[in-house]
Prior knowledge:
This protein has helices at 8-18, 57-76, 105-113, 129-137, 151-169, 172-180, 202-214, 218-230, 245-264, 274-277, 281-289, 316-321; strands at 30-34, 38-43, 79-87, 90-97, 143-148, 182-183, 193-194, 234-240, 268-271, 294-302. The chain has two domains: 8-114, NADH Oxidase (3-Layer(aba) Sandwich), CATH 3.40.109; 129-302, NADH Oxidase (3-Layer(aba) Sandwich). It is an alpha+beta fold.
Amino acid sequence: MPTQTLTRQDVLDILEIARFAPSVHNTQPWKVSWSDTSVTVSLDPEHLLSDGDPTGRETIISLGIFTEAIVIAAKKCGFESKSVSYKDKSSVIVLTKKSSTPSDSQTVALLTQRCTDRSIYTHTEITATTPEDIKKSGREKDVSVWVTTDEATIQKTAQLTSQGIGVALSSPNFRKELSSYLAEPWSRSNRGISVNSLYIPKIIAYLEPIFMRLGIGLGAEVKLEKRRWLSASGIVFIAAKGDMPEYWFQVGRDYLRISLQIERAGLSQATSAATVEASNFHEDIEEMLGTDYRLQCVIRFGNGKKSRAYSPRISAEALLST
Length: 322
Ligand SMILES: Cc1cc2nc3c(=O)[nH]c(=O)nc-3n(C[C@H](O)[C@H](O)[C@H](O)COP(=O)(O)O)c2cc1C
């Protein structure tokens, strides 16, 4: 007889899929616990970003992403999510066993195979339905999504993003913290951004953590970021009605749905928090969009690399026991 309650093995099976969820700097700051009927995700204080994310916005967005990944994974494992709630920097997903196991293999495959592609994209025609499909994948109540392929908007966003990255990288503490989350191919760490995913010459990529810490090549980094964003065939803007953790969490859930929809369309994607976090650049974008909602995420998409550079993940066991 199948059990009606969640077992440790059920939770491990769910986490085996959900652990591929993206997070800011790939910090994966999750502590997962469970009861007979629910999974709770709280934050691991050891992996919060004091300089990269002082307000906690990027981390709570990431928590929303991870929570949505659990919902997707649970469905594949035969559980339906009855409710999802956010409170005090934790999320609770209430799950019930379904009598017949629904197969959601395609979404699970998209989740486990997606990645951030920071290469310079080559031009591709975006089919007419793609922006609408991406927009429709956002479903949260207080969140709005814009998808544009407009050249002038792409140029303006590229300009603001590179300025924003310039501001962020001018902080030695920001750079130091980021460099500790850059993962070399020989690194044994299972957190952080793979330097291979930066798509810069290998020798520079291997030295990147040192360069980043010392602030070497910052001007080149700003220029490169501009070229990356100028190469986009389209951009997604996600904004929320307010700028508090409850809204950030909703944004995260939509972020994952949107990210998977971009994958489904066979396109590459990358994101930057620069315009959201640095200075008042978000106001320029909000004005451009004509909204009083607060900008929360910006994602570029287009025709990227065929080969994929994956960043590491911590194991399901480690998520449960940390
Ligand atoms: C909320 C959030 C903010 C992010 N901000 C940035 C960013 O500013 N710049 C960047 O290059 N990547 C950014 N990323 C991408 C993460 O670094 C990436 O998702 C993580 O390293 C995992 O790698 P993957 O997406 O290839 O699986 C962000 C991701 C999330 C979820």
